[in-house]
Amino acid sequence: MPDVVPAAARAHTEDLGAFVSASPSSYHAAREVARRAEDAGFVRLDETAAWDVVPGGRYVVVRDGSAIAVTVPPTAGATTPFTILGTHTDSTGFKLKPRPTTGRDGWVQAGVEVYGGPLLNSWLDREVELAGRLVTADGAEHLVRTGPIARIPQLAIHLDRSANEGLTLDKQRHTQPVVGLGDVSQSDVLAELAAAAGDGVDAADVLGYDVVLAETQPPRAFGIGEALWASPRLDNQLSTHAAIAALLAVASEDLAGIGVVAAFDHEEIGSGSRSGAAGPFLEDVLRRVSVGLGASEDERARAFAASLCVSSDVGHAVHPNYPERHDPANHPHAGAGPILKINANQRYATDAHGAARWQAACAAAGVPSQEFVSNNTVPCGSTTGPITATRLGIRVVDVGAAILSMHSARELTAVVDPWYLSRAMQAVLAG
Ligand code: ZN
Predict the structure, then answer these.
(1) Domain that holds residue 81
(2) Span from the CA of 82 to the centroid of ligand 1 (angstroms)
(3) How many structural domains comprise the chain?
(4) What is the pLDDT of residues 161-199, one digit of tens each?
């Protein structure tokens, strides 16, 4: 582990901090990917319009909380393979329920559902915001974020003397945040959201919403030599940012393959949606690119057969207080480069060919690499990797950055690791 964080690594991870701060919800994250791509000259494509995809073109498409960016090399043809970086935009936490204004005993509260598998305790005693999208009667979608508006307050130790022997939170009764004081019947959480949306949005016109709770404390470096980085939503905005940064860094080069970043929503709840990895979004975009390049069905299949997807998601660094949770021989260390994820039961899609491609890319980038495999008694989670492999038949290798506190409201990475990951991704795209 280096004594000093390289300046380029610090700049990369500070830019990750800007990405995370701009992305309190998956909808914001997808638009931040598109904004960065458009600022670099990519053309925004509308899925309901005809596409004119040509060699040398660069494009970005947003579907709900997902975004796909594509760079087509000038020399690309009908059988040119795709090099895909797959990530996800959503993070575990809470989602606003219908009839969101609730409360009692002088407190106004917001009604929320649990989204995915958050560490519930990590959300206690933080000032959080409401963020996501509102859809008005005219069909228009409005991104919204309120700034600090809510907090899930923990019960005082005096009222729960056993709290330090093991905290048990009821997912319904104990997770509803307070948002203010007063009479519930005179309060309206939706009106606060409409006011925060600007654009003259009137609460009465809001007919639908997808709104989550989001941590508001900004990301920051800390620790000896400021080698550590604390941030919400590293799972998986760390990978999404690393991927779009890698694609933009090489987009003007004549790459061997068609470079793609696919950032999917809904990974934390199983990917089964029209914008999730189990849905058709990526296949739709790849097929339309193939059509633009004049590919027959046979040529399109040849392109898919030669393609590679690097699926990146965060993984677990060894926790110094719980080293026994890892495989005895495979101890991924924070600050020691990206992890290659391997699982005999294909919870990760990595196989021998994919592993070899990734290791070669890390070596070409001058990036250290390490493996993650589970302790046999502590089964791992999964990622979009096996879903993409199953959905498209494209070879997938699962990788990521080793972090601590996964699914906490505030996670922890080494400052150098997002930069290492992005450099290795660049090497994959370069072929
Ligand atoms: Zn994840």
Answers:
(1) 7-91+232-429
(2) 23
(3) 2
(4) 999 999 999 999 999 999 999 999 999 999 999 999 988
